[in-house]
Specification:
membrane, elongated, transmembrane helix, alpha+beta, 33% strand, Cytochrome oxidase complex assembly protein 1, 3 helices, Coa1, transmembrane, 6-stranded antiparallel β-sheet
Amino acid sequence: MQTPPLPLPPRPPRQKDWFDRNLLWLIPAIILFGILALCGFGFMLLGLFKSSDAYQGALTRIQTSPTAIEALGSPITDNLLFTGSIHLNNSAGHADLQIGVKGNRSKGTAYVIADRSRGQWHFTQIIVVLHDSDQRIDLSDPEKPKLDQPLER
């Protein structure tokens, strides 16, 4: 008589591959990387806008205006965020910006409209509205800045 064959030894348990072993930290790491990439992209765009000639020219005109320095205080700096748009087409362009500005006395918002022709920005409107008194400082004409009365509400 024949003896029955011996049973096969049990299979060793399947070893987990790298993906299975690291899944718990891999998914949060991918999500965190995506969030950081979006934030980095946003700050890069913010830096591009803030380094534009239109933005820098308007901010320089505000920072060097004696009327703005008297109203806002010195030094005048910009806030982190701003709104607006800059459109460029070769050597022509248009900018419509709202820049938050602050000094050691007051804060305000600068409303800037500028056009670019032949590579040069020409500011058609730079008006700083102070937050605490609603006074308007018109810096559109660099020779004659005007301090207007508070806005009517």
